[in-house]
Each structure stands twice: as C-alpha cells, then as structure tokens.
Design brief:
This protein has about 200 residues and is an alpha/beta fold. The chain has 2 helices and 20 strands. Strands 1, 2, 4, 6, 8, 9, 11, 12, 14, 15, 17 and 18 form a 12-stranded parallel β-sheet that branches. The chain has an 8-stranded mixed β-sheet with strand order 3-5-7-10-13-16-19-20. The longest helix has 24 residues. About 40% of the residues are buried.
C-alpha cells in the first residue's frame, strides 16, 4: 500500500497519474494529472504540504519533505530525476532537477531551469527562468538554450507516456527462468527518444 493518512489528512491523487506501489505517500500530498511517481519515492506530507502539479515526474528514490508549516511544490511538467531530494522548495514549471541533487528550504527555481546532477542548492537560493545551475554549493552557470529545452520537454513527455503505460500494463509477475523466442520477440512500448 502506498498511501497513508495522518491526523485525518489523506493524499489526493488524480486517477490519470501513476504512483508505484513501493512509493510512500503520506498525509498532505496533492498529485495532479498525468504524473509519474517511481519506485521507492517518498512524499512525506506529515509536517507540511507536498504538491506535484500536472505532468510532473518524480522518479525512483526521490524524496519530498519540508519543515512544519512549509510547502514543497513542483510546478507543471517538472522533471525530478533519480534520487533527488526536495526540502521546502519551489521548482518552476518545466524545470529539471538532476540525478541525486538536493534542493533546500525556501529555494525558488524559476521556469524552464535545468539543475545538473549531484548539485546542492542552498536554502534561500533563487534562480531566474532558463538558468543552468550546477555545483555544490550550486551557482547559476549560464542560460538554457532552446535546443536544451526541447530535449528536456521531450524527456518529460517520455515519463508522462510511462505513467500511462504503467496504468495500462504494469503488474506484478513471476520472473521467467530463461530467455526463449517469445521473450526475444517482445518489445517495450517506448516512444522514440533521442538525447541531443
């Protein structure tokens, strides 16, 4: 079971979104339309509010939490990569947080930003729209190009498609004991996606 009530507050998840059964979604969490929440993700709305707006992907092992009375928000079409930690921050619309990045309290990341993998965003950090952010502690390095934004948007669409694939076909099963011709003939329903 993925969903937990605390102090009478239950998570809210739009039925068009997919939350993996191993994810943990607690209390004051709102998940909008067409979102993907991956295996072993944790959204802990036990102190404050966690919001994933429409089209967000929150990948495997990601964590969202905040101080009492706070809020962590990922705006529309946000892309939160594997193992990232968000604590009391605001991630702008169509922005990407890189693998194993940490974004701390009261950080405000603008629209269409890209944060490099393994970055550390200090509390109260602010980044304007279209910033490329990297480092530990992170700094604004340059501006996101149109080509980079196309790549990011396509990557997010792949996860929105994955949410629907999971709703349609993902189920627990027994593993096969060997590879046979039928297995080799099988193909995953993956949209063509070519990184730049």
């Amino acid at each position: 079971m993925s969903f937990y009530e605390i102090d009478g507050v239950r998570p809210v998840v739009n039925p068009s979104s997919f939350v993996h059964p191993t994810a943990s979604v607690i209390g004051h969490v709102v998940i909008g339309k067409n979102c993907y929440v991956g295996p072993h993700a944790s959204l802990r709305g036990d102190f404050g509010k966690i919001v994933l707006e429409d089209g967000v992907n929150f990948q495997d092992g990601c964590i969202a939490h905040c101080f009492p009375g706070g809020e962590t928000r990922v705006r529309k079409n946000g892309h939160i990569s594997h193992g990232a930690v968000l604590h009391g921050c605001d991630i702008g619309e169509n922005s990407m947080v890189g693998i194993q990045t940490v974004v701390m309290d009261n950080a405000k990341i603008g629209k269409e930003c890209m944060i490099a993998a393994l970055s550390y965003i200090k509390p109260n950090f602010a980044a304007p729209a279209r910033s490329i952010i990297a480092g530990s502690p992170a700094e604004i390095k340059k501006q996101v190009t149109d080509q980079q934004m196309i790549w990011k948007t396509e990557g997010t669409a792949v996860y929105q498609h994955l949410a629907q694939r999971c709703l349609d076909t993902l189920h627990q099963c027994e593993a096969l004991e060997s590879v046979d011709d039928q297995y080799l003939a099988g193909k995953l329903n993956i949209k063509n996606f070519k990184p730049l």
